[in-house]
């Protein structure tokens, strides 16, 4: 779904001003959920910090 669903819903609202939002925008069922993996988070933290430092150092070159 994603952004296309949002665009379609906005178009539906614009095309049907006489209908209520409850009619036009039913709540969608939750398809899946994701939980963070603590081990992967811990493993990637040092790399993330390295990326942040490198990004800050390279930022002036991209301006």
Report on this model:
- With 63 residues, the protein is mainly α.
- 67% of the residues lie in helices and 0% in strands.
- It is elongated.
- InterPro entries: ATPase_NBD (IPR043129).
- This is Xylulose kinase.
- It comes from Shigella flexneri.
Taking Cα atoms only, what radius of gyration do you get, to the nearest Å? 21 Å
Distance between the termini: 35 Å
Structural class, by secondary structure, is mainly alpha
Mean pLDDT: 94
Question: What oligomeric assembly is this protein in?
Answer: single chain
Tell me how many strands there are. 0
Secondary structure tally, helices: 3
What's the order of the H and E elements?
A: HHH
Provide the low-confidence segments as ranges: none
List its traits.
63 residues; mainly alpha; 3 helices; 67% helix; 0% strand; elongated
Quick overview of this protein structure:
The chain is mostly helical. It is 67% helix and 0% strand. The chain contains three helices and no strands.
